[in-house]
Design goal:
Layout (H helix, E strand, L loop, with lengths): L1 E7 L2 E7 L2 H7 L6 H5 L2 E4 L2 H9 L5 E2 L22 H8 L4 H62 L1
Antiparallel strand pairs: 1-2, 1-3, 2-4
Length: 158
């Protein structure tokens, strides 16, 4: 019987088992790559062997693993410092969509201004045409009303 060790979650787990397959089953894992990648291995430290042999086939937390270990600062990846040119490029957002939208807005304003001017010219023209029409109809109405009066008087005298 051998003692196997692997990390699962925050803890290192050990188990005494007859084979790698039995160790994987005890850990409730089905990935044999743990052994080929070196993530799981045989251990011979006296504390691990003594603890695992007390409960063969049952995984236990390895000695000294009862607290969560926080990686030290040296293990953290170092962020690459940006060059001044990269900072300058990062500071300037892409304005292409804004520029296109502003261009479309200016084009729309120009089109609506031209259309409004055209409509205003038509309104002035129609207003003048209406005034001419009203003057002409008023004159014709007066002429016809005078004719009606003349015919009434002529009919009344007969």
């Amino acid at each position: 019987m051998k003692v196997y060790r692997t990390r699962i979650g925050f803890h290192d787990w050990i188990v005494a088992a007859n084979s790698q397959k039995a160790a994987l089953q005890a850990w409730d894992l089905h990935n044999n790559d743990l052994f080929t990648s070196g993530a799981a291995r045989v251990v011979n430290t006296p504390a691990d062997v003594e603890l695992a042999m007390k409960t063969p086939g049952i995984p236990v937390i390895a000695p000294g693993q009862d607290k969560i270990r926080i990686p030290d600062a040296a293990a953290k990846p170092v962020k690459k410092q940006a060059t001044p040119e990269e900072r300058k490029q990062a500071a300037k957002p892409d304005r292409s969509k804004l520029d296109a939208a502003e261009k479309d807005l200016a084009k729309f304003a120009k089109q609506t201004s031209a259309r409004r001017a055209s409509l205003e010219d038509r309104r002035i023209s129609l207003h003048a045409e209406i005034e001419d029409f009203e003057t002409e109809t008023a004159r014709e109405r007066r002429r016809l009303e005078q004719r009606v009066e003349k015919e009434r008087k002529a009919l009344a005298t007969n």
